[in-house]
């Protein structure tokens, strides 16, 4: 019985199951779009396809209001503009081209996760003088790959037409070429491309530089040859940094030449200056709603004598909210998990690889937790690292089952509470901004901080 | 010397004062001693003032091609007129068309200086349609005082150029009193007519107790018309037939023709008009938001008797049903959603103008709102559901603020256009029975009718009428409960006003203190907590690893 289960539990079968699930979700989405009031397709998918239609007609994708992405995305989705056949079904399928692409990207991401996991486990096995993976390890890799491939949240997001999976491929490829292929220039080019696609992967650059600098320290056997930050300058780090900058700047330059300030504003500057007032998971949301009002001319005109607009404008959260996010995710976590120059220990490559991947996971988790805006799509940003984190995690041990389940329970419950309040606001128009939405965001944030604590502890636990 | 022309038109109907003889509205009307004595009673009234260019300081309007200021009450009675059917959309509207090459902001300054209006709005608050820059206000349930002041000053100044202050004061008092009860007005300026009449002011009262005489003025050429609708003749000729008299008299004519200042007998006349705006009594519409409403809603418009034919002969006219929205800035239409939806819904977006940023809250928007024009098809379904969205509002500074809000009901109308193609086809089909002369007469009749238009009504060159051709007749549907199962229109209007109610959630601004305190504490403590955990766990790991390596 076990044997037949083992033979069934293969990458091929997992990919088939993952594909079938995605097809099922996609078809259900079509049904929901056609028959139900609330649409399955993400509003962003209409934004992407509208932008593509503008490009198709020789215009800028930024002609489409709220298109805040690289023009590349609208180019890739150009086929969706060809949906003017007489047959409605054909039109629907052509319009869904982007979804197929995102589903494919989702599956390829799953495959890359599998490859990276395989490499990590194989390295570990080699270290233990075993050159072949046993079935337990194989199953573990497949089970962890399933965390991505069979994850209903991941499937829903790509089948609704969200482009996160395209970014997932880029980020995973960057890791693949960095850790497995050791092709730092290619890795840097991919990281630059990722940052061009969305800004946030820039947080991986310092981590990668520290990680590579640590690899060379072991080779040189001279840990204190230079002082920080000069000890980060190595050939490998230069290759990675320069290729990242080169790829990022060349793509940005190309897009700037084509679309000018529109590109710069909508793809980058908007994200730096935006104050998201509409409800979302973020701790800062209600605060930012108030502050966006305080910053408006309307506030100056309407405020009565009990509120002095100048006093209240002296301190604004919107101006400093990025500080804990940047400090933790770009500086503190990468250094705590990857920088060991002054420590009197030698870590092996496997530990460094684990720490590097755990660092990416913790950075992303922290970045999202402290972000000014959080929507469900953002969870994908750290879910791609979850299989690597779980590989060496004590949370999978039987003795920690309760702890693991409580993490999952509180993460889901805090979201559910928030979503219930958001439903009351969005669909029933109930005035639940305060206390309901506010405290459910606080609760969700605190749950994430609590989970982060567990993850931090777990990240260091098995490192030797 | 050019003078202002004023035409006063009074209409008697069976709903009015019984003291007036509807069959003979001229009974008791006499002209004597420079005055018209009009029988006391309730009339529907329209006053039109035409201001010649020589009386306007055109240098003050050098950057303006056209402008128009229109206001109409939200009261349903303002939409009842069959004769004076200008049908101005409810609320206050400014339309401004700068001259070619002129700066919109400069033109705006010129307009507001000219009307001496220091209202706190700017050109940034206007939206641009293909016809003009437009500004609209929904909250003017009463006559805007700044505009009525402009009108009365303009007219009374000219009326009494060399008259005494007492006379001017009398004019102002009288006009201001009358203006308080008007239901709509329009001020239209056209800079293109250099030698003609540049400005026309039209005032409308659905019912006014007219108990005064009309003085013949030295500086205003006055024309008086008193009419009643002849229903029998109207049915017979399929036009609106008015019986009564219309006469104008200048002071010179008066002295010349009536030196003895005697009583002038008035002569009965018949006027046949083809109103551009009509009421389509076969159908009405009901509009509402389902309660409770969310932030993404549908505006429901239900048309009664959808099986009915369009108002005019389909063989000659192209008739389409339209919905015209002027929504405040709390509401926005997503044009992409509307275009996408129109593929499967029974409406089509014809035009959408206004604030296009779908993400901004109300307090970050300068523009007053949006205009949406939809074409609806009610052949299969009599309800139209237009999706719209609500922006986030300003946090409430006052804890007792109501979260009830109102959206102006859309104008729902059939626009019927004379189709020459259809006419030709009709002629071809009827070839055996219809002589060429008949056909030509038919074409001539319609073209003449439309070019002549209703003398009591000027087509606006700037408002929604101008989205349609000159050959278009508008058949307006009135708002009212469609049937018992749907929402009653009355419950959804504010005191009979033509508005639909919705509610929007707003946080109380006073909560900012607690939100700030909790957010800061949580942010700082969580940062410290995570930082501490990272450092302690790293230290533990290093100690453990060091021990192991040693």
From TrEMBL, chain A:
Task performed by this protein: Mannosyltransferase involved in glycosylphosphatidylinositol-anchor biosynthesis. Transfers the first alpha-1,4-mannose to GlcN-acyl-PI during GPI precursor assembly. Required for cell wall integrity.
Pfam families: Mannosyl_trans
Documented EC number(s): 2.4.1.-
TM regions (residue ranges): 12-31, 89-114, 165-180, 189-212, 232-259, 316-341, 353-373, 379-397, 404-421, 433-452
Subcellular location: Endoplasmic reticulum membrane
Entry annotated with the keyword GTP-binding: no
Gene Ontology process terms (BP): fungal-type cell wall organization; GPI anchor biosynthetic process
Keywords noted in UniProt: Endoplasmic reticulum, Glycosyltransferase, GPI-anchor biosynthesis, Membrane, Transferase, Transmembrane, Transmembrane helix
Name this polypeptide is given: GPI mannosyltransferase 1
Chief place where the protein resides: endoplasmic reticulum
Record's bilayer topology term: Multi-pass membrane protein
GO cellular component: endoplasmic reticulum membrane; glycosylphosphatidylinositol-mannosyltransferase I complex
TrEMBL record, chain B:
GO cellular component terms given for this protein: endoplasmic reticulum membrane; glycosylphosphatidylinositol-mannosyltransferase I complex
Subcellular compartments: Endoplasmic reticulum membrane
Nucleus listed as a keyword: no
Protein's membrane topology: Single-pass membrane protein; Single-pass type III membrane protein
BP GO annotations: GPI anchor biosynthetic process
One function term, GO molecular function aspect: mannosyltransferase activity
Segment forming the signal sequence: none
Keywords of the record: Endoplasmic reticulum, Glycoprotein, GPI-anchor biosynthesis, Membrane, Transmembrane, Transmembrane helix
Chain segments annotated as transmembrane: 514-535
Pathway: Glycolipid biosynthesis; glycosylphosphatidylinositol-anchor biosynthesis
Family in the record: Belongs to the PIGX family.
Reported function: Required for proper folding and/or the stability of a subset of proteins in the endoplasmic reticulum. Component of glycosylphosphatidylinositol-mannosyltransferase 1 which transfers the first of the 4 mannoses in the GPI-anchor precursors during GPI-anchor biosynthesis. Probably acts by stabilizing the mannosyltransferase GPI14.
Protein name: Protein PBN1
Source organism of the structure: Ascoidea rubescens DSM 1968
